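$ fold --in a.seq
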Amino acid sequence: MAGPAWLDRLELRHSAPRFYAGVTVLAALDGAMLCGLVGRWLVLPGLAVALVLLWLIAVHTGQRIALTLMFLLSTAVLFVLGLILVQDRALQQHGEWIDVVVTSKAQTRVNSTCELRRGDGAIVAGPVGGCRGARPGDRIRVFHDPEGRVPPSWSAPHVARWLWAAAGANIAFTACSLSAAVLGVRGNRRADAQRPGASGGRPVPPPPRNPPVSQ
């Protein structure tokens, strides 16, 4: 599918390997931004770059819905993994196991919440998802950040596990962008080769202005 004129000129002006390398580096860096690997403050700029890459895919893939859906899915996975990594990193650096008592519990249709009391009497919010099967008065054990920057967790942080998952999602994210770039360059090169005068053969000389008059 043909893109805007400036994009077609950009793709035709540079060699295909160089253009592919540029798109690959941009997409891989953007994936790292989306999952917060290069800083939490770069997540929103990463989403803006992802929209540009989505536009590139939409321009160059035509009716290939599968590639667009895979890109959107990998973008969502990277964003969610980024939220998990933020919590697990904070818990890994500052968290510790603590014994607490469930003071109250509330259940809704989609979620459950609870409050916990530490040994010093301080009240903290319970883990995301509530206190499972615990009831008020029960003693439970959670992994807690004393500074309260992230909510407690039922398990110890597993940063390495989430990093591997983010790497896999980033590979899919980058592969979608690179595939769209390949389709775009091939389509432009094919269209350029079909234009008149683009065959590469010897140019045909123009006819003389004043042809000789036959006698």
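$ fold --in b.seq
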Amino acid sequence: MSDRTSARTRRTVRTRRTAGERRTAPGVPTAEEPPAAVPGAGPRRFLRAALARIPLPLRGLRPRLLTSFVLVAMASSLGTGALAFREARTGVLQQSQDSVINQFRKSVDAVAPSIPIAPNQADLQSAVDQVLYANRSSGWRIMATYGGHRAYAPSAGFVELSPEMLRSVRDRRVAVFQRMNVDGRPRLVVGMPVTYTWGEGLETRLSGLVMYLEVPQTTEEGYVEAMVHGIERATLMALCLAVVLALLAASGVLRPVRALRRATRRMAAGHLDVRLNVTGSDELADLSQSFNETAAELERTVRELRRLEAQGRRFVADVSHELRTPLAAMSAVTDVLDLEGEGETGEALRLISEGTNRLSGLVNDLMEISRFDAGAAELNRDEIDLAESVRRSVASRWRQEQVETRLPGPGELRARVDPRRLDVVTANLIGNALRHGEPPVRLTMGVRVDGAGTAWAVIEVTDNGPGIAEEAMPHIFERFYKASTSRARSESSGLGLAITAENVRLHGGRIRAANLPRGGAVFTVELPLHRDDTDTEADTGAGGGGSTR
């Protein structure tokens, strides 16, 4: 065959290789069209629903950074690996097939001059044997066809040829190839028509003789698999590196965030002097600087408020103390004048006496509140009969038809309490119920044991009034709070329930207010029973509340 034919053969081989590989070669990565985007809010709703199902710990900054780094590394490594795989695979297969086709062409060119123009079966068999002998270590299988004759080497049998290949070698003067899978193994099949020259112009014509080559590509497949394994290892290393980088980045980002979280918790616990170390000039450093400025301003403001509060408390205590002596003298004088005054003069003296008594009571309440604020309130405990003490407190102030009592029998309920403070608690609760509720007022006492096994003495005071307004319920124990602004000049000072709550807390007890379903309000006091004399007294610095309804 001529060099011109060989050149055309090589050009045809490259062209047919591309077409054949795309049609039959398995495992070649192909680009897929991305799915069309769905317009509207559907994807956004789906994304929000998917994020809502993620557990809360996985929504933190560290998991998100880790996921982002891993996804970027995976996409980069897989994309780079796919491109490298495609180029390397193409190069390996191209080199392999070019080498096989060139070797096959040389072998056929060497045998073609000895083949007759019209070969018989023996001629074909001799030709394939010679080609196979020249390449006996390559694992080739050769087949020659001419008309109805077939010759095989080294043994009968050949891969089934596709119609496209048969048509190409019948009509064209160039070698063609095709990759096939036979029993899961890759094979390269080459078809090469034998031509001859005719006449003075050396016209090239097809002789009708076609030589076919079937060669396994196990070695090339091994190279491809080695490349796949190498890409997998590189991807794994890239992912590991991405995880390490993500952890380092998350650590660098989360370190100041954790410090800020600890600082805010300490500030919430009352440590207003907490500050952050500011390093760098990035956004987190600006955030730390802003936190320090906020904390400093908050500390200054709270310090000023505490100073003003302490100054106000000292003022109230000093004024109350200074007013106590003259008010005591005025009360003594008005008591004497009440006995002697008659007519209009007597009425005026009685008004002065009532105002003096109210002012004296307010001063006494302010002195008591000042002692609570200063932490100077003390308990003088004594083991008493609670029911008997409450019974005496009620009998000394109100008539029997005003207050209904339901108390345990004598000696059934004893506890170590401060009798004076228990008397104040009882008097304030019943007095508040009579002023702002409707008689009869009911007082009950009993014992309750909680789940921890602690026994509590329970005192309940109920009335038949309209109850407590819902908006007033959170403020009922605040100082100087009155549920109705229309009673701003009532006989109550607004400190009774505040003092009651402080006395209950001083005993380590609890107090609460509620409305009854049938109407009326109920105040419940719980005092612990069987407490040791050495028990630490309750903190009196917590600001109690007080109100009248």
